Amino acid sequence: MDYEVVIIGGGAAGLSAALMLTRARRSVLVVDGAEPRNKPAAHMHNYLSRDGLSPLDLLKHGRAEVEGYGGEIVNDTVRGVAKLDDGFAVELTGRTVHAKRLLFATGLVDEVPDLLRDRWGRDVFSCPYCHGYEVRDQRLVVFGEEMKVALVRQWSDDVTHVPSVDGIEVEDDRLVAVISGSRRIPADALVYSAPVKPRDEFLLALGAETEETMVGPFVRTDDKGRTSVPGVYAAGNVTDPAAIVIVAAAQGAQAAGMINMDLITAGG
Q1: Which residues are bridge partners to 124 per DSSP?
Q2: Least confidently predicted of 30-44, 51-65, 132-146, 210-224
Q3: What is the DSSP string of the chain?
Q4: Measured in whole angstroms, how far is the alpha carbon of residue 21 from the centre of its chain?
Q5: Locate the FAD/NAD(P)-binding domain: which residues (predicted)?
Q6: Mean of the per-residue pLDDT values for the chain?
Q7: What is the mean pLDDT of residues 3-20?
Q8: Residue 1: its pLDDT value, please?
Q9: HEC readout, 136-161
Q10: I need a surface site. Which of 2, 7, 177, 209 has the fewest CB within 10 A?
């Protein structure tokens, strides 16, 4: 085997898992496409001792820690994954690597309309826990379920709920209004519940079972990150759409501990 563990996805979940496994002296390869979900955001929040840090800085420091313990990280794209008698084959752009265990930490994609793309992660966002404090007491517009309106009112009394977002107005690189039908609503921020899609194509191809969540089917795991496919694990947003950064990191560490014990039990 080239590696004991190949981790597909190098965000908080993948790097956290890689850190634990490299410190356990496992041979680890992290394959990352360098397109984290929170890349547009200038800061991340609710990560104890790292609140306000740039998401990209978190990944930079995380990569350095993993590599410092001997882990290998490559910026590449996975082209295919196959089950073998003694593990797995992972096809990359220019080579195929083999592993005894796989961890998918591939995240999900926010399917944001083109008209909002340039503002996403700035003054248009989905998670009020992540961004609400920064727009406290401002004019907020909410597109989404009624429960989200009640949640957003924790940060401001000036909240307008809309059934559609048909346009926005921006002045001096700041959101100033949301267009909903024939209405023009002055706004400092838009809380927008975008559809999400897990990056789970290879998990499904391997036969991983899914379960229904509030936002659609996601790959099912147990509390240690094990999927229904022996030797295949998943952590972070690819299996849990509600996981914020610190939760995704914890899930990665949890899965890594189970992978290590799994290898020990198998005699490795």
Answers
A1: 120, 190
A2: 30-44
A3: --EEEEEE--SHHHHHHHHHHHHTT--EEEEE-S--TTTT-S---S-TT-TT--HHHHHHHHHHHHHHTT-EEEE----EEEEETTEEEEE-SS-EEEEEEEEE---EEE---HHHHTTBTTTEES-HHHHGGGGTTS-EEEES-HHHHHHHTTT-S-EEEES---EEEEETTEEEEEEETTEEEE-SEEEE---EEE--HHHHHTT--EEEETTEEEE---TT-B-SSTTEEE-GGGT-TT--HHHHHHHHHHHHHHHHHHHHHTT-
A4: 20
A5: 3-115, 163-252
A6: 97
A7: 98
A8: 67
A9: CCCCEEEECCHHHHHHHCCCCCCEEE
A10: 209
Instruction: Provide the residue type at 26 as one letter.
Output: R
Token pair for residue 116? Answer: 């909002």
Tokens of 28: 């680890």
Report d(CA 198, CA 216) in Å as an integer: 9
